[in-house]
Amino acid sequence: MARVAALALALAGCGAPADAEQPIPFNHAVHVVERKMACVECHEGVLTQAWAGMPSTDDCLRCHAFAFTGNARALEAGKKAAGPDRDPWVRLYAIAPHAQVSHAAHVKAGVVCEKCHGDTGKSVVARRELMLEGEGLMYWCMDCHAERKASLDCVTCHR
Questions:
Q1: Tens of pLDDT along 5-49?
Q2: Residues 127, 129, 132, CA angle at the centre, nearest 5°?
Q3: Tens of pLDDT along 41-66?
Q4: Cβ distance 132 to 11 under 8 Å?
Q5: 135-139: long-range contacts at Cβ-Cβ below 8 A with a sequence spacing of 24 or more?
Q6: Residue 84: exposed, middle, or buried by beta-carbon count in 10 A (0-12, 13-18, 19+)?
Q7: Which helix (DSSP H) or strand (DSSP E) does residue 83 occupy?
Q8: What gap in Å lies between CA 61 and CA 72, rounded to an integer?
Q9: What's the pTM?
Q10: Which of helix, strand or coil describes residue 139?
Q11: 3-state secondary structure at position 1
């Protein structure tokens, strides 16, 4: 029962469903597998912040404005639809309000993106992978912490 409650709490903070459609089609495989781009090239905050951050459409247009005119039009249309100071991406991951997970701390500890996000880099459609499956996020994280001999103290992840 406690594991079901933990899963419910984790899911409550997630917002979008795992397969929420993005307003602009985004193919991770083209960028990661074909173009050999690292996650941090678009999700810049992953090295310095708690949140990895979503790439801005302006970042996308640095390449796409010149090389892929169809994609550039879709990016511009998506940006206009979202509003003048917003990007249109639908966030697929969110941590429950009572928890804190720092991307930067995990990267510094040697945790690779795939450990939590699965094979997202090989996906054609952006969708939430791995993290919230099984018995619940808290137990999944605790198992990983135990394997790596990281802190299991509640205040490590809970506010």
A1: 343 334 444 556 667 777 777 888 999 999 999 998 888 888 988
A2: 120
A3: 888 888 988 888 888 877 887 777 66
A4: yes
A5: 135/3, 135/6, 135/7, 136/3, 136/4, 136/6, 136/7, 136/10, 137/6, 137/7, 137/10, 137/96, 138/6, 138/9, 138/10, 139/3, 139/6
A6: exposed
A7: none
A8: 6
A9: 0.70
A10: helix
A11: coil
The amino acid present at 64, given as its one-letter code, is H
**CB distance 24 to 13 below 8 Å:** no
The answer to whether the beta carbons of residues 60 and 30 sit under 8 Å apart is no
Per DSSP, the chain holds a count of helices (H) and strands (E) of: 7, 0
Contacts of 66 (CB under 8 A, 6+ apart): none
8 A C-beta contact, residue 18 and residue 131 = no
Strand-pairing partners, residue 99, are 158
Check: CB of residue 148 under 8 Å from CB of residue 15: no
